[in-house]
Structure formats: C-alpha cells, structure tokens
Amino acid sequence: MKVSIQVKEKIGRTISNYFVTNKIVDIFTSSNIPADKSLSAKWRIVVDGFNKISDEKDFFYILNAFCHPLNFEDSEKRLAFINELQPALAYEDIGIEINKKDVLFIKRKTDNENYVHYEKPEKQKTSIDYIIEAVNFFKEEYNKVKILGLTYEYCIGELYGTGNNVEYSTDYQKSLEAINHLKEAGIIREYKTAVIDNENGTWATVKCKINENKLMQKEAPQATVEAELLAQKIIHEHTHHFDNSIQEKEINLTHKIIEDEKANSVNGKKIPKETAIVLNQFGDLYKEPKNKFCYSMGETNDRHRIVRQLIANKGYKQTSQIALIFDNKSEESIISEIGKINSMSKGKLSVKDNIILGKKGSGYRANPVFKFILKNE
Question: What is the number of domains present in the chain?
Fold first, then answer.
C-alpha cells in the first residue's frame, strides 16, 4: 500500500497535535528509524522519519506504534487520534479497523466506474490564465510605487515533502512555466527562485527584475525616436536652471512634465488607496473585475469560514476563539490555514498585503488596509 508525500505530511501534522517531541523521537528510534530532533517543527520530524523508511510495510508498523493504547490517557483520546488519521488515509483508499491493542490498515477495493460526481467540475486553468495572473500581479505592484529597477517577489506554489523527497504542486509547475514565458517575451529581465520555509508550510517564490516599459506597454507605449530626442532636450534645458543637477521628473508622450499627485498625499507621504474586497456566500473572495481577481474557497470550506468570521469581527480574535467554530480543529491547523489564505489571496487577487494580519498575544484580524464587503449574490 503506497502512501503519497501529501498524505504522509497530513498524518505528520496530526501526530504533532497529539505527541510531544521526545515521544515522537522515541517511537521512531525504538523502531530503528533515525529521527532528526533538530528540525524546527514536530510534524517535520515525523515526515522526515517517514521519508527514511524504504519499505511501505514499515510505515504502517510505525503508524501502528503511534496508535498503541499506552500512548494515550484514555480510550477516547486514542479514538479521536485514529479518527483524525482516517480522512488522510482515505485518499489512498485505506481504512482502519480498531482493536484493543493495535489497529489494522486495510486497502479498500474501489470501482471508479461506480463513482457518481454530482458537483459541477471546476474550470481548469490554462497556461494563459497563469500568465495573466503573473502579469496582473507585476502591474499592480509596479503601479503602487512606479520606481524603476525594483525586485518583485511572486509566490508560485506550495512544495510538499522534505529534503530530496520534494513534490511540486501543479500550481508551482504551471506558474514557473508562466514566468519563463514572460522572460522569453522580455517582460521579465531576470529571476531567481527562492523557498520560504515556515510553520505554514514550504512555499516557492521567484524574485523578478521586470522590464517596466514592456509590462506597461498598453498604458505607456514606447516613445518614437523624435519623442525620445525631445524628452532629452527638455531635461537638458532644465539643467540650466539648477546648479549641477538634473530635474528628474517623468515626461509623458505628449511631452508634458507630470506633477506630483499632491491631492493623494499628507505631509509629503502618499496615502494608499483603499481596495474593496468582497466575500460572497459561496466563498468567493474577490476584487473587481471578478473574472480576473478571484480566490474561490468554496461555500463549506474551512478557509471561507475563517475569513468570514474575521471580516465580521472588529479587531483581533484569539486563535483559540477562531477554533471554536469548528468541531475538531487544532490551533496549529488554524494558523496553517491562515498562512495559506494569505499566500493564495495575494496571488489570486494580486495584492501586496496579507488579507489577514497576525499579532503575537492578540491573535488575528482582517487587514484594515482593505475595505471588506460581505455580499449575498
């Protein structure tokens, strides 16, 4: 019975909610599997240990060891732990039969032809969709500052596994292809890949230098040779009015000097415009135009429930209070979900700031830089 890295990671997170670090290490080492206690999180120690197992039978031996009754204060806590393992193993069509001393892992027989799907299938994203998402992100970021030569960081997807056993999500692969297409088109000058590894998971990003003229060509077509010469002449003439200096102001194609936007500043500091973000009853988090900037979480999805609660709540809310809206969800899983909400919404909505803010000791809140609207459509 082969088990994927994603399922092992889910099981690792479940184990980390029930066992302390020393107990996790003891169970692995007593089964002759080395465990790396130096890893930053308990679930990573578990997944690292799973990845060192060469025989899948040994994986189930270790999992059975975690299910032993003596590891729990009472039978109810043991049952709760095993019940949390069930949904992850179900992805591999594996069931669990519980005995007094151990558990049995059983491969279920399935007939895919007998499956009936009643849900409307989601629209599959094309390569062009991934390119449009990236272009919109870079345009939005550039328009915030309009400074040439900056480096922009773009999240391209989540990575699963640890060490040499890394699996790449579809979003990662398609988004990286989009970045390469934009580089070939000259919109991206150069980029470097990077990995962010934190308590919310492992995320891949690209740090890009962009060609601003190419990126914004619809709004600002490249000037003709005559316009370029005239622009240079205007700048040159201004140098005679200043000692040893050149007036650095943007010149548009009608050869007018663009003045600073004084109406949108206070004491010389620019005030960011408030972005309206809508959350509807179906779990769609979006800004206009919706067909370009929408993160569809799903009506019954846990992330939808978290976002809705924080938008409705004014101010910070403790992680433990957020967890109360769920029947069986740990604070660690709430933190993980919020990290994924922020990462996904940044890419889908093409916004720079996190949708949800976290503050140590206070909890989480909807970011006040956005104007959130709860809407029934």
Answer: 3
Beta-carbon neighbour count of residue 28 at 10 Å?
A: 24
Evaluate whether 5 touches 165 at the Cβ level (below 8 Å): yes
What b/e string do you get for 291-308 counting C-beta neighbours within 10 Å, with b at 16 or more? eebbbbbeeeebbbbbbb
Q: Is residue 58 located within the same domain as residue 155?
A: no
Find the angle CA(73)-CA(78)-CA(81) to the nearest 5 degrees: 125
Least confident of 16-30, 236-250, 339-353, 356-370: 236-250
Single out the residue in 113, 140, 158 at which a domain terminates: 113
Position 112 scores a pLDDT of 45
Q: Is 64 exposed, middle or buried (CB count within 10 Å of its CB: 0-12, 13-18, 19+)?
A: middle
Residue 171: pLDDT above 60? yes
Task: Tell me, yes or no, whether 243 lies in a domain.
Answer: no
CA dist., res. 174 & res. 286, Å (int): 22
Q: Radius of gyration over alpha carbons of the chain, in Å?
A: 26
CA distances from 123 to 5, 120, 126, 350 (A): 26, 9, 9, 20
Provide the pLDDT for residue 271.
37
297 within a domain of the structure (yes/no): yes
Q: Which residue has the tokens 């240079």?
A: 232
Q: Which of 215, 238, 265 is the last residue of a domain?
A: 215
pLDDT, residue 166, reads 66
Find the domain containing 306 and state its range: 275-375
Given this model, what pLDDT does residue 246 score? Answer: 37
